[in-house]
């Protein structure tokens, strides 16, 4: 993991502008230093500063999941994370999941299952599903996990449709493509069972470039 570089704040600019900071954004394995208004969300920094427009803005209020990315390997709503708080921490967006021409198993499963209509929610759904597989592999129970079955064996093979619906409930699809999204996540779980939670041969969730 890259050592976190604290943002270097500065008082208001001489013109009376808003407080700004120099921030190191470590996205998909690449580090870039940008100067940002302290109020800039991680989502806006990704889209407007780094031109990584895969992460989508649906509500900008943490309610739809379209902006989901992985921060320190865990899924977050990037519209609710200040970019300054992500300084120096590894971020993975949908653009960083594939390994060259080889799609991440979750991406492949979404394609195979035709798990989208307009596609606007899809990057967030895919990043969230990658997070789900990592959480399940780590043995984290969900609200519907029966007592005594906590997945502590590190397997994602035990995920069922109810688990996927619950764990993906923060990702809204206004096209209603859930009937294909759930099977896609289950396919990805089956494809990654026994491999790393990111679908690799054992690495942690993160940038693969
Ligand atoms: S845009 Fe972030 S949750 Fe909707
Ligand atoms: S595919 Fe259109 S919002 Fe989900």
From TrEMBL:
| SUPFAM superfamilies with a match to the protein in the record | 2Fe-2S ferredoxin-like, CO dehydrogenase ISP C-domain like
Q: Region Disordered: which residues? A: 1-22
Biased composition (Pro residues) is annotated at: 1-10
- Offer an example of a GO molecular function term for this protein: metal ion binding
Q: Which PANTHER family match?
A: OXIDOREDUCTASE WITH IRON-SULFUR SUBUNIT, OXIDOREDUCTASE, IRON-SULPHUR BINDING SUBUNIT-RELATED-RELATED
Coiled-coil stretches: none
Q: Which InterPro entries match?
A: 2Fe-2S-bd, 2Fe-2S-bd_dom_sf, 2Fe-2S_ferredoxin-like_sf, 2Fe-2S_ferredoxin-type, 2Fe2S_fd_BS, Aldehyde_Oxdr_Iron-Sulfur, Beta-grasp_dom_sf
Domain of life according to the entry = Bacteria
Pathway given for this chain reads: Alkaloid degradation; nicotine degradation
Q: Which Pfam families match?
A: Fer2, Fer2_2
2Fe-2S ferredoxin-type domain segment(s): 21-97
Please give the PROSITE patterns that the UniProt record associates with this protein. Answer: 2FE2S_FER_1, 2FE2S_FER_2
Q: Does the keyword Kinase apply?
A: no
| Name this protein carries in UniProt | Oxidoreductase
Ion transport as a keyword of this entry, yes or no, is no
């Amino acid at each position: 993991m890259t050592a976190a570089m604290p943002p270097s704040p500065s008082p208001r600019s001489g013109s009376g502008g808003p407080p700004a900071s120099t921030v190191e954004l470590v996205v998909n394995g690449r580090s870039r230093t940008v100067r940002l208004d302290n109020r800039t969300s991680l989502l806006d920094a990704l889209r407007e500063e780094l031109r990584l427009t895969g992460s989508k803005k649906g509500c900008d209020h943490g309610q739809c999941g379209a902006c989901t990315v992985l921060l320190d390997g865990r899924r977050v709503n990037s519209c609710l994370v200040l970019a300054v708080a992500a300084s120096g921490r590894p971020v993975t967006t949908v653009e960083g999941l594939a390994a060259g021409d080889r799609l991440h198993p979750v991406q492949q499963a979404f394609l195979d299952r035709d798990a989208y209509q307009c596609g606007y929610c899809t990057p967030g759904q895919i990043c969230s599903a990658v997070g789900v597989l990592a959480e399940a592999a780590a043995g984290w129970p969900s609200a519907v996990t029966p007592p005594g079955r906590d997945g502590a064996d590190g397997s994602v093979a035990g995920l069922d449709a109810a688990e996927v619906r619950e764990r993906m409930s923060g990702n809204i699809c206004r096209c209603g493509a859930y009937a294909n999204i759930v099977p896609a996540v289950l396919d990805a779980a089956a494809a990654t069972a026994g491999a790393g939670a990111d679908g690799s041969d054992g690495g942690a969730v993160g940038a693969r470039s």
